């Protein structure tokens, strides 16, 4: 299995090793960051604080005497990210409105819907369309089952979601494709940030930026799987400013190391900086500066975790076009819960 615990150690430390909440003492679950308890199951019964799904769900513990399961949820704009820990359970779900993407960190998983079945064998993620399904989550190798489940509006995936559902409603990532592994890392990076913020919800601009980044990454992963290459994203082609935003995002992705200002991006697109700002606000709900900064943080995170990446934080900053290293370190720790040096040392085993 891909060892995802190495990619976001703090989120598991802050959530999984909260024995009071795990043992049913800390109710309602008041923290970490934006996370709040959604449901808790044990031999004493169940406590429900918030529904995880828009439709029905029925959970049954494997061990009725000592088994337990807990779900905590945090919101990021129109998306939600659930943390699940369980000793083992079966759950039947009917989700009629929102697709979900699950990243398994430990334990085992079996999923079955009307058309397909999936057994986790180290895949970085599994995406599920709308409809009914049965899931078996269980402990393995002495560890409880732990997972993060991203739920997002169907409109964000558009025709890609329709294609997924036409082909059976289940899709698994490939551990040998870097962009698929990166999607799992992004989910854990979002979870880490959600444990760090002080508010009950992520601020609008940050949530919009995360929505854009995750949606784009999901689209790339879906398109890389055979049968989905002709699917088109859900975007109103007549939306004012969409073409400018697409040009800018392509430029950011390709020239991240060399971009020095938003003015430079606007010049490349062929519009004024104000026009570009308005286009991003209208199309993405976030400023181009926020998208640029977030792209640099995530690119740096990827390089810090990459065993074949640069050997120093300074070299990684230069590779990502980050001029102010001290400011970067402060922002990186705020988002990921650890310093860039700590991430680099974990990668090298120091």
How would you sum up this structure, described in words?
- The chain is an alpha+beta fold and 350 residues long.
- It folds into 2 domains: 4-213, Jelly Rolls (Sandwich); 242-348, Homeodomain-like (Arc Repressor Mutant, subunit A), CATH 1.10.10.
- The chain is 39% helix and 22% strand.
- It has 12 helices and 13 strands.
- The protein has helices spanning 9-15, 19-22, 158-166, 178-196, 204-223, 242-255, 262-269, 273-283, 288-305, 313-319, 325-336, 340-348; strands at 36-42, 45-48, 57-61, 69-76, 79-86, 88-95, 100-106, 108-113, 117-119, 126-128, 131-138, 145-151, 170-172.
- Strand 1 (36-42) and strand 2 (45-48) form a beta hairpin.
- Helix 4 (178-196) runs antiparallel to helix 5 (204-223).
Count, helices: 12
Number of strands: 13
Strands of the widest sheet, in order across it, are 2-1-4-5-12-7-10-13
**Average predicted confidence as pLDDT:** 81
Which structural category do the helix and sheet elements fall into?
alpha+beta
- Total number of domains: 2
Q: Radius of gyration in whole Å, from Cα?
A: 20 Å
Helical content stands at 25-40%
Q: How would you name the CATH homologous superfamily of the largest domain?
A: Jelly Rolls
Shape: globular
Q: So, CATH architecture of the largest domain?
A: Sandwich
What is the topological layout?
Layout: H1 9-15, H2 19-22, E1 36-42, E2 45-48, E3 57-61, E4 69-76, E5 79-86, E6 88-95, E7 100-106, E8 108-113, E9 117-119, E10 126-128, E11 131-138, E12 145-151, H3 158-166, E13 170-172, H4 178-196, H5 204-223, H6 242-255, H7 262-269, H8 273-283, H9 288-305, H10 313-319, H11 325-336, H12 340-348
Antiparallel strand pairs: 1-2, 1-4, 3-6, 4-5, 5-12, 6-11, 7-10, 7-12, 8-9, 8-11, 10-13
Helix pairs in contact: 1-4, 4-5, 5-9, 6-7
């Amino acid at each position: 299995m891909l060892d995802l615990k190495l990619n976001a150690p703090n989120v598991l430390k802050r959530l999984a090793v909260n024995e009071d909440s795990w043992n049913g003492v800390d109710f309602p679950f008041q923290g970490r960051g934006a996370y709040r308890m959604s449901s808790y199951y044990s031999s004493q019964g169940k406590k429900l604080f918030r529904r995880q799904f828009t439709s029905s769900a029925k959970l049954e513990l494997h061990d009725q005497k000592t088994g337990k399961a807990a779900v905590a949820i945090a919101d990021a704009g129109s998306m939600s990210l659930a943390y699940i820990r369980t000793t083992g359970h079966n759950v039947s779900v009917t989700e009629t409105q929102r697709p979900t993407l699950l990243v398994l960190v430990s334990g085992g998983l079996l999923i079955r819907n009307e058309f397909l079945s999936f057994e986790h064998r180290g895949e970085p993620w599994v995406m599920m369309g709308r409809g009914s399904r049965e899931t078996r989550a269980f402990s393995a190798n002495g560890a409880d089952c732990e997972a993060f489940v991203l739920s997002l509006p169907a409109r964000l995936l558009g025709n890609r979601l329709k294609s997924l559902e036409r082909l059976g409603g289940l899709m698994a990532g490939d551990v040998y494709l870097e962009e698929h592994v990166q999607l799992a890392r992004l989910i854990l990076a979002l979870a880490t940030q959600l444990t760090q913020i002080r508010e009950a919800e992520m601020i609008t601009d940050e949530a919009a930026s995360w929505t854009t980044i995750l949606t784009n990454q999901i689209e790339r992963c879906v398109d890389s799987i055979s049968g989905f290459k002709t699917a088109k994203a859900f975007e109103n082609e007549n939306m004012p400013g969409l073409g400018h935003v697409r040009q800018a995002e392509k430029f950011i992705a390709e020239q991240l190391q060399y971009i020095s200002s938003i003015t430079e991006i606007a010049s490349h697109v062929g519009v004024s900086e104000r026009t570009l700002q308005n286009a991003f606000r209208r199309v993405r709900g976030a400023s181009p500066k926020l998208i640029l900064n977030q792209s640099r943080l995530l690119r740096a995170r990827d390089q810090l975790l990459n065993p074949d990446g640069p050997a120093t934080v300074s070299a990684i900053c230069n590779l990502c076009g980050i001029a102010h290293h001290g400011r970067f370190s402060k922002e990186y720790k705020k988002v990921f819960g650890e310093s860039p040096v700590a991430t680099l040392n974990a990668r090298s085993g120091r």
